[in-house]
């Protein structure tokens, strides 16, 4: 049994042998299940009361030791206790973006869309960023002839770096509200909501509506609300900055991949935004970054499920 667990949804699948195709792929709402165990049991029931021998999940949370407490959701559990309760021989839990990073070498050309740069170098470091409920960040480093090592970290919580006067004002608003203005406070679903509220406050809108990330995106893409559109523009610009920082840190000449649930839905808006310009805008290192491709993951089947399978190898 394989899982990709986020703060909003949990996606599960079955794999009957190493390297086999995934089957019974289903997405369950996290808020409709009181615990991960209940969600997993519900999925197994929906899948004909399957009885897995092993399980691996990628979860939107740091994984350190046995106890896992989700950052963006109330689910919490002991890995070993869950293994015993579900009757599994092995239960592997990794960060969701660690799992997604493990899937990158397996992605085929039709599963991503390139946004500038040159052809990705083979057997070279890769970066991964993904705005969803939060902001996931990871990387993948080549080891030996065919091996890869994923990087587990919380790069979404690095300090947000403003460039324009408007961005400085937005960051000041975020700092006043949250104390630390992290990248995730702007480049995520909650970040879109924060950006809209910040822009309303800066423009003197006394009673700004409490729009959801989906509403900000819809109105911004349709051009129905100038502040929603500006929030999307800031989102894309900062996503580019974060991706560029990651590319420099890792020397990611194998490309920087963009995952998560938000970016693929922005379509042409993302392509026409400041994303690529801000990715490359690193002063003396612009020529290096100009060659590094940005690769938008748009695979229909969650690649993180394949990455979870790799975690069992």
UniProtKB/TrEMBL annotation:
Gene Ontology biological process: glycolytic process
Catalytic activity field: D-glucose + ATP = D-glucose 6-phosphate + ADP + H(+)
GO molecular function: ATP binding; D-glucose binding; glucokinase activity
UniProt-annotated location(s): Cytoplasm
GO cellular component: cytosol
Keywords: ATP-binding, Cytoplasm, Glycolysis, Kinase, Nucleotide-binding, Transferase
A Pfam family of this chain: Glucokinase
InterPro entries on file: ATPase_NBD, Bacterial_glucokinase, Glucokinase
Uppermost EC category: transferase
EC annotation from Swiss-Prot or TrEMBL: 2.7.1.2
Predominant location: cytoplasm
Binding of ATP, residues: 3-8
Family: Belongs to the bacterial glucokinase family.
The protein's name in its UniProt record: Glucokinase
Organism of derivation: Vitreoscilla filiformis
């Amino acid at each position: 049994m394989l899982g990709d667990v986020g703060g909003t949804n949990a996606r599960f699948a079955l794999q009957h042998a190493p390297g086999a195709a995934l089957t019974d792929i289903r997405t369950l709402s996290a808020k409709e299940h009181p615990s991960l165990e209940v969600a997993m049991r519900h999925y197994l029931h929906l899948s004909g009361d399957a009885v897995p021998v092993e399980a691996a999940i990628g979860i939107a949370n740091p994984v350190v030791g046995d106890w896992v407490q989700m950052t963006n959701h109330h689910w919490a559990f002991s890995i070993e206790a869950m293994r015993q309760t579900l009757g599994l021989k092995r239960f592997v839990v990794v960060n969701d973006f660690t799992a997604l990073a493990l899937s990158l070498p397996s992605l085929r050309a039709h599963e991503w869309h390139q946004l500038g740069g040159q052809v990705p170098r083979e057997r070279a470091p890769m970066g991964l960023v993904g705005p969803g409920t939060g902001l996931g960040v990871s990387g993948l480093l080549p080891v030996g002839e065919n091996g890869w090592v994923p990087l587990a970290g919380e790069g979404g919580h690095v300090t947000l770096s403003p460039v324009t006067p408007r961005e400085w004002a937005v960051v000041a608003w975020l700092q006043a509200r949250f104390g630390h203005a992290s990248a995730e406070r702007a480049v995520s679903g909650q970040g879109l909501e924060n950006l809209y509220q910040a822009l309303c406050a800066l423009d003197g809108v006394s009673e700004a509506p409490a729009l959801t990330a989906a509403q900000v995106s819809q109105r911004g893409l349709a051009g129905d609300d100038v502040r929603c559109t500006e929030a999307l523009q800031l989102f894309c610009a900062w996503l580019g900055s974060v991706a560029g920082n990651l590319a420099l840190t890792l020397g990611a000449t194998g490309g920087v991949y963009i995952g998560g649930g938000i970016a693929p839905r922005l379509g042409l808006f993302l392509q026409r935004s400041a994303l690529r310009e801000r990715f490359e805008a690193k002063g003396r290192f612009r020529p290096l970054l100009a060659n590094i491709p940005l690769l938008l993951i748009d695979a229909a089947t969650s690649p993180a499920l394949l990455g979870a399978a790799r975690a069992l190898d």
